[in-house]
Amino acid sequence: MATAILCAIRVTTAQQNLAVNWSSNTYGPDGPWNAITINVGGNQNSTDIESEQVSIDLLVGSYYASYIPSSSACRAYGPQCGNGGVWDPDTIPIKQPPPNIWDAPSFINITGTVYPGAVTIGTAGKQQTVYDVDLASIDTFSVKYPNEVTAAPELGFFALNSGMDKEIRALSDAKGSEDPWIVAGSLYNQFIIPSYSYGLQIGSAALNYSGSLVLGGYDKGRIIGPYTSCAGYMTTLLDITMDVETGPSPFSFGNASKLLTNVLGQPSSLSVKPDPMPPGLHLPAQTCSNLAQKLPVYYDSTTNYYLWNTSDPSYEQIINSPAYLGFQFTPAPGDEANVTIKVPFKLLNLTLTSPVVTRPVQYFPCIPFDRTPADQWRLGRAFLQAAFLGYNTHTNTMWLAQAPGPGVANEGLGLEPQDIANSATTLEVYSDKTLFADSWAGHWTATKATEASNSTSSAPADPTSTTTTNEHQPGISGGAIGGAVVGVVAGIAIIAAIIFCLVRKKSKQSTLQQSSDEGLEDTEIGPERGFRKQQSTSEGYTFLEMPTDHEVEELPNHAESKELPTSMRVYELESPLNTRR
Ligand SMILES: *[C@@H]1O[C@H](CO)[C@@H](O)[C@H](O)[C@H]1NC(C)=O
Ligand SMILES: *[C@@H]1O[C@H](CO)[C@@H](O)[C@H](O)[C@H]1NC(C)=O
Ligand SMILES: *[C@@H]1O[C@H](CO)[C@@H](O)[C@H](O)[C@H]1NC(C)=O
Ligand SMILES: *[C@@H]1O[C@H](CO)[C@@H](O)[C@H](O)[C@H]1NC(C)=O
Ligand SMILES: *[C@@H]1O[C@H](CO)[C@@H](O)[C@H](O)[C@H]1NC(C)=O
Ligand SMILES: *[C@@H]1O[C@H](CO)[C@@H](O)[C@H](O)[C@H]1NC(C)=O
Ligand SMILES: *[C@@H]1O[C@H](CO)[C@@H](O)[C@H](O)[C@H]1NC(C)=O
Fold this sequence. Notes:
alpha+beta, Cathepsin D, subunit A, domain 1, 2 domains, 13 helices, 22% helix, 27% strand, disordered C terminus, binds 2-acetamido-2-deoxy-beta-D-glucopyranose, transmembrane helix, transmembrane, Peptidase_aspartic_dom_sf
């Protein structure tokens, strides 16, 4: 009985999203970039964990595990190494193959050793300590910038579960598997957050627009719908355009499209990975050249970057105008319209600093990527300044959407953290078409005429748009489960939890079957179940498969601790489809 009660408590304890602190420091040398702050160190037996922890700033996005600089790794480098803080573990390393990362678009080569450590993460309002997280202490690391300058990164990287490839093993929410035990997975496994998921919007350090990272949820104030979504980490970029949101165009050509070309220089769609680890737009050289030809930028053969020609009069005009680079993606499953994510040029006026260059210069972050077949085109931090990226591990759903500009309070549309249910494949978002221009109004100067700038505030209103819900999965729509059911489910949750706990072992197999049938209706699942195919929405492109072995491994772990909510459809409580309107 004691077990049953304990189990009931675990299931019914409010699991809530956890927002993460962002640092007041910003980092380069190709940013400036925002970073998160976490506390690292100590273990279960610590009597005073706070005194044993150090505060560390990390860039969001990693492979395998979170990588944290050590003072010994930094000894070999100049003073910028470890600017974000260093951590010197005093625990015993985990017997695991040493994680080495060589990420070509990030120009980075890291070797590390994995140690268990405690992490305290959250905000002043709510923070959590998780123990025994696998943290990779950096032994050696270097970044080789395009001009061959080699340096140490200023700070390490925080793993979100941004992996995809076979070698990127960040999928486990269970200690003891061969995957690293990462922060979001352990928070989920310990019933602290409702799902092994995240919502990320990195904001703009140059504009003092702080980032947003919510584990087990997302900030609704950082998305403007409609979003695109897909299974896995790759999405289809259809085209890149240039246009202006309001007022006259600052470009002599008005607007432009068909700027995305493949390695042969032909207009083409590309399978791309939105990825916060690399800095730029890592695309075919021909695409960068197309963009540069339309802008006051030139390829500088000393730095090997595209630099803004700051003495060209159109430079300031373009940067300060409501003009944007538009990234057109395929619609979410079930939607018709392509999704365009607009990256205002204001965000593409980035700065190279020491040690890449001796004096700061403004660069345009299209970085020609000499991609090997095993690698992917990436849309890195420069792109994600203007985009929202979310991912739910259990449903293998990635969401990508327009993010608002800084807004009136440098909080986008306003702080509005929401949970992501474990079974979620959709998000509730605002879709008002005027929100984008409004959120940028304080930072834009419409081109030339004052009449034009007046028209900024009277951008065409969409009468039908308020808060709308993107519903891409008819299989679990509100029609199937009425609002009344939701209330009943809440009432019986505790009783059900006890029953469930008592019969858990016996029913494990059938629960598993049921949950995968219910939760994943729109994804193709192979006969051996867990083998999930990408929903291919574009023709002729091969998508990388989800590492299927993980899916198969993970399901039993979910069954241990999490199946009740799924099989009882308690998750409907948290679904925006049913609880709102
Ligand atoms: C905590 O203390 C227990 C009992 O002394 C010991 O078995 C365990 O290994 C310690 N854990 C850590 C992480 O040091
Ligand atoms: C990465 O660094 C390690 C250790 O410094 C070195 O042995 C290895 O050759 C480097 N790899 C690449 C691809 O540069
Ligand atoms: C988050 O920031 C607040 C306010 O600065 C601070 O009190 C808290 O300790 C920080 N928490 C973490 C985990 O960094
Ligand atoms: C681009 O410009 C052309 C002609 O200047 C105009 O007809 C068209 O509507 C514009 N397209 C967009 C998307 O603004
Ligand atoms: C920068 O722009 C100025 C003015 O248009 C022009 O004279 C100059 O040649 C440009 N410099 C480069 C490197 O393109
Ligand atoms: C470009 O960025 C630099 C560095 O943040 C800033 O000083 C400059 O004013 C920006 N240029 C424009 C036109 O906003
Ligand atoms: C989506 O974009 C593609 C490629 O640019 C275009 O061919 C197609 O017509 C667009 N679809 C819609 C519904 O606009």
